[in-house]
Design a protein that fits this description.
Elements (H helix, E strand, L loop, with lengths): L1 E3 L2 E9 L8 H12 L4 H22 L1 E8 L3 E7 L8 H4 L9 H4 L8 H7 L3 E7 L3 E9 L2
Antiparallel strand pairs: 1-2, 2-3, 3-4, 4-6, 5-6
Helix pairs in contact: 1-2, 2-5
Length: 144
Amino acid sequence: MKNSKNVISLHYEINGEDFSLAGEASSNVKKILKQLGVSPETIRKVSIAMYEGEINMVIHAYGGIADVDISPEQVKIVLQDEGPGIPDITLAMKEGYSTAPDTIRELGFGAGMGLPNMKKYTDHMDITSEIGKGTKVEMIVKIT
């Protein structure tokens, strides 16, 4: 964690091998936001959006990285992976659409709400993806 000019920058490696570790980064960010006195509503939005992103990286991309910048105005989350990419982002954004295998669904994941929830709980979200190279998701939650 580094802190410069009122911005706290955090970096996390998301392990794609172990579902039990999924959510550790979002949980850590949640604790830091609480310590900073950020409103519960903002913490809730950041936690949901980031957790959904972490789970997606574990399910679809075998992990990745999460970079979080916390400033007095906003929380910026950048998730990046080197997974298979998203062939049709518009389709992937539809509630209930999922490419998760049955083994993942049996664990209670892969209901097709990850990307829709990420968009719902952020003030801005941008997805770029290239087949065979990976996906980058940038999200901003304004601090209220």
